[in-house]
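WP5 quarterly update. Target: NAD(P)-dependent oxidoreductase. Source organism: Lysobacter arenosi. Length: 312 aa.
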Amino acid sequence: MRIFVAGATGALGLPLVRVLVALGHDVVGMTRAGAGVDRLRELGAKVTTADAFDSAAVRIAIDVAQPDVVIDQLTWLPANPADIIRSMPDDTRLHREGGANLLAASRDVGVGRYVVQSRGFYLDAPKGHLADESSRMRYDAPGEVGESARVLGAYEDDVLGSPSIDGVVLRYGFFYGPGTWYRPDGAVAAQVRNGEVKIIGDGGAVWSFVHIDDAVAATVASLTAQPGVYNIVDDDPLPASEWLPAFARWIDAPLPMRVSVKDALEFAGEEGVYYHTSLTGASNKRAKELLGFSPRPLAWKIQAPSGARRHG
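C-alpha cells (predicted):
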C-alpha cells in the first residue's frame, strides 16, 4: 500500500514507519524539519516536512503522495513528563486543527482509509468496570484533560462519520518500552528514582498500558481490518496504587510516597489528581477478536494474592 504517516518521528510513528517499510509498503512520513528527516530516510521512507497547522501544505503533501491510507500519529508531548499538563493545550490544538487539516485533505484527495491515534485512558466507565469501544470520552474531566477529551471525542466522531472514508480509531493505552517515558532508563523512571512521583489519595485510578511494539502490530493490523474503534491496551489494567510500586520495584527504585488529595492539589493541580483518582482502564476484547491483537504481559505487573480484587 501507499501509506502516509503524519507524526512519523514520534514514539509510535518511527517504529511504525520502520515496520511498514520492512513489510514492503510505500511510506511517506510527515514531520517537522530537523533530525527526523534523516531518521525517516534512513528507514527507507519518503519524507514531507509539511506543517500540520498549514492546511494548504497538508493538502499538497497528501495530493502528491496519493496514499491508500493516512495514519494520524500527531502528538505534541514534552521531553519531561512533569510538563505534560502545561504542554496539553498545544497537543489539543494539534488534534483540533492539525487533525482537521489532515482529515479534510484526505477527503479531498480520495483517501480510502484513515487511521487516527486516540487515547484509551480518558474513557468513561462505571467505577470497577473497564471501558469498551462504546464508551465515550470523559468530557467532564477537569481542566486541560477535559478539553483534550472533548477535542479527541469530536475528532473521533468526524473520522467515523466520514462517508467516503473507512475510519479507524485506535485508542492506545499509555505507551511503555523503547523510546517511551516508561522504561528503565526513561523519564518517568528517573522521576520515580528521585522521589518526584507520588501516589495521590487512594491511587484508585486504573491505568491501561501497552508496549510500543504491540501498539505498532495493532496499527499494522488495522490497515485491513473492519473500520471502527479499537482499544489498544494490554491485559493488565491496574490502579495507580498497585502499578506505581510495582514499577518502582522493576527499576530498583524507592517506593513512591503517598500524599493526600488536598496536598496534591497544591503541586499537581486538578488534572494531576485526576490521573491518580479517576482514570478508567479499558478492555481489549474487540481488538483481540478483530485485529488478532495479542499483547504481552505488562513488564512490571504484580501477581495479586489469591482472592484479591482485580479489575477486569
